[in-house]
Amino acid sequence: MTTTTEKYVGQSILRREDAALITGQGTFVDGIAMPGALHLTVLRSPLAHARITSVDLSAALALPGVVAAFTGADLASEFAIGLPCGWPVTEDIKIPEHPPLAVDEVNHVGDGVAVVLAVDAATAEDALGLIEVEYEALPAVFDVEAALEPGAPLVHEGLGTNHCYTWPLATGDVDAAFAEADVVVEGRYLQQRVLPSPMEPRAVLVSPDPVGGGFTIYSSTQVPHFLRDIGAMVVGMPDSKLRVIAPDVGGGFGAKLNVYAEEALALALARRMKKPVRWTETRSDHHVATTHGRGQVQRMAVAATREGKILGMKVDLLADMGAYLQLLTPGIAVFGAFTYCGLYDFGSYSFTCRGVFTNLTPTDAYRGAGRSEAAYAHERIMDDLARELGMDAAEVRLINLHPKFLENRTVPSGVMYDSGDYEPCMREAMRLVDYDAVRAEQKQRREAGDAVQIGIGIGNFTESGGLSPSKVAAGVRLQSGGWEAATVRMLVSGKVEVVTGTSPHGQGHETAWSQIAADALGVHPDDVEVLHGDTAVAPFGRDTYGSRSLPVGGVSVHMAAHKVVDKARTIAAHLLEASEDDLSFDNGRFTVGGTDAGITIQEVAMAAYLADNLPEGMEPLLTAENAFDPPNFTWPFGTHICVMEVDTETGFSKIRRFVAVDDCGHVVNPEIVAGQLHGGIAQGIGQAMFEEATFDADGNPTTATLADYQFAAASDLPHIELGSTVTPSPTNPMGVKGIGESGAIGSSPAVVNAVIDAVAHLGVTHVDMPATPQRVWRSIQEARG
User: Fold this and answer.
1) Peptide bond preceding 539: is omega within 30 degrees of 0, i.e. cis?
2) Across-strand partners of 55?
């Protein structure tokens, strides 16, 4: 082994994960061979709300190859509890029972009614068509505003209401701010439901251990530790009997941050049948049985002076829960409460969120959860305020930005941001897009009456990344710790093992964590192996979501590696017969000051392994564990600017330029950051222009397949120009903030603001997402009268 003089953090090292993935050598749940496994399929309700009056399985059971079939009543005794909600945001929140398989009543199209186990997937799917179910249709409601009207159909009659909870927050004297204001601007903005649609659908394979009595669950999940703990609770077994493995996971976007009915069913049926059971989601399953993203009606108001200085803000949300509360459903909208004030400095703020049940698929986390919705609303109303005052949209934002701060600063929502320097970030984005030149071209096109107009849209944002502090989580009633665990071991060979509690699904943890450990230990990243996604290998962890992996999990690796160095220093001093204070450590070697005497950390690792010459009381082995629970969230921020061309005769919109300047503190791997931003921006553009889960009058999805649900294709996306500033976070020793969700947060408001700005001179002041050509054209026609 030799040490290296290179430093790896900050370098764009190629992702070590990619070679297997791009050559088809990845390991995904559906590709894991398991001889004798039974294939599970779920019969789903075609009605949004109905009583189940009878289920006849006889024809399905008679089909050759079918091993078993069950109703919800047949399996009720297999479950100790229903699927739990892990974020009951208020004491009086209403939480309906959520059995993994419906027993008496279905509450949305796609609710599971019966299951089939067969020798192969095709037979199991054929058997579903032979099950006869009789329903008694019940009234249903699909709109959050209509659901709160007197006399509205009740999603759960036993609750007596469709109101799930009300969560308030207020700082300062909001009423006084609005009374003193020269101008008050109000807006109503919609966050349409979107379908997460990762490249790899959900999948689960459960294998029983006939000797030990335990089970191994292979799942395409973001949260193997959550699945182990909650899965054990649902089926009523010790968590020590469950091992969860998340192999290669082909994207998650929040949809795989959950414990689903199919995972509980597969586990219960593997236990009952004493055989492996597997289930793989179809795209049709995904559109009705996997959680949807977003789903909010946002009412917002700002009070300001004539000069554009904001005095106060009011936010009133209706958040669509869907028919049940999944793991985090109630908390998603509440999570955004702290960022509706954005990057802007003012005195008074109020926020109220009401959760509402509807007869639709449950909502839950989707990339940028809560913060994306917040950024969209505050950036839309900043443009509305600028139009009301006759000011430039950038000017209004610049005069309201917080001044530079490098330590915690309390913001209007009452929380403390960790650090921020917003104006240089925004001005850099304006410089890259050549803001003044675009405005000049816009003026010229308007004066010429050009059929194709251009608009410029700004998306400023900050987000509560690094989802972590356990005390803060408890304060908002999130039933989960926010720490993250890591173990770093130097082996007898001098190589390094890193065990992390984070569980990647495309983020590049193996590469980035090897860079972090390599720099701390003075070795090459190729000498570092990163182990993850297996609760037997990494028994402790809080997994991956909320832009937390690097600022919590990666920092924990950093801290564990430095603990290894500290122990190695003590052993090295003993071996060199020197004082620890006289030792320097550089490039993997301890050296006695003023001499050539030294020893490599690999030699120390060997000495720790042999253990025959260690300091008195020193334990053998060169290994360290760390659990990091940060003192605050991190708050990455940025400015995204979109230049849009809009054909006023057809409503067709095309992005001409897209610039994103982001600040995520210190960067470990710039290429990984760029990849995360590209993906997030593509998703934000998708929501802004193309994506929407829609339903007919009976609650049937009208975007039930990918033939109906439109994504942004490569041809729809512009070249994305990236820039950055660096404002280190004081919450952790690496000064990192996280970047996984930022692209999806800043892009949507930039795109929609650009569309509206292109046709604002025609009288258009509002377009809902997705800004389709038809919707834009209609807005132009309505503005013209």
Assistant:
1) no
2) 133
Which residues of 82-131 form beta strands (DSSP E)? 105-106, 112-118
Question: Residue 4: pLDDT above 50?
Answer: no
676 secondary structure, DSSP code: H
Parallel, antiparallel or unpaired: strands 38-44 and 484-490: unpaired
Pairing type for strands 528-531 and 496-500 reads parallel
Phi and psi at residue 619, in whole multiples of 5°? Answer: -75, 150
In b/e form, how buried is each residue of 547-580, taking b as 16+ CB within 10 angstroms? Answer: bbbbbbbbbbbbbbbbbbbebbbebbbbbbebee
DSSP 466: S
Cα distance between residue 577 and residue 562, in whole Å: 22
User: What is the crossing angle of helices 435-448 and 422-433, to 10°?
Assistant: 50
How far lies 139's CA from each of 164, 469, 623, 702, in Å?
19, 43, 61, 19
Helix (H) or strand (E) holding 641: strand 637-647
3 state SS of 437: helix
CA 347 to chain centre: 30
Nearest-10 crossing angle of helices 555-576, 601-610: 80
Average pLDDT score over residue span 29-49: 98
Confidence of residue 3 (pLDDT cuts 50, 70, 90): very low
CA pair distance 97, 82, nearest whole angstrom? 6
Over residues 239-288, the pLDDT tens digits come to 999 999 999 999 999 999 999 999 999 999 999 999 999 999 999 999 99
Query: Would you state the pLDDT for residue 785?
Result: 87
Q: What are phi and psi of 638, to 5 degrees?
A: 180, 175
Residue for token digits 């030990």?
Answer: 212
pLDDT (tens digit, 9 = 90+) per residue, 134-154?
A: 999 999 999 999 999 999 999
Determine the length of the chain.
Answer: 785
User: In terms of DSSP H, where are the helices of 600-669?
Assistant: 601-610
pLDDT in tens, 293-315: 999 999 999 999 999 999 999 99
Burial 68-100 (b: 16+ CB within 10 A, else e): bbbbbebbeebbeebbbbbbbbbeebbbbebbb
Integer Cα distance of 645 and 441 in angstroms? 11
What is the SS3 assignment for 604? helix
Coil, strand or helix at 54: strand
User: Which residue, among 559, 536, 725, has the nearest Cα to 630 in the 3D structure?
Assistant: 559
State the burial class of residue 369 (Cβ atoms within 10 Å of its Cβ: 0-12, 13-18, 19+): buried
Could you give the angle at the alpha carbon of 208 between the alpha carbons of 207 and 209, nearest 5°? 120
Helix residue spans in 194-305 (DSSP H): 224-235, 261-273, 283-289
Contacts of 314 (CB under 8 A, 6+ apart): 174, 178, 300, 301, 302, 349, 350, 351
679 vs 693, 712, 742, 752, CA distance in Å?
Answer: 20, 11, 10, 18
Contacts (Cβ under 8 Å, ≥6 apart) of 257: 222, 223, 226, 327, 328, 364, 365, 543, 545
CB 526: neighbour CB atoms within 10 A? 12
Q: Residue 563: name the closest of 525, 608, 517 by CA.
A: 517
Q: Give the C-alpha separation, 40 to 204, whole Å.
A: 10
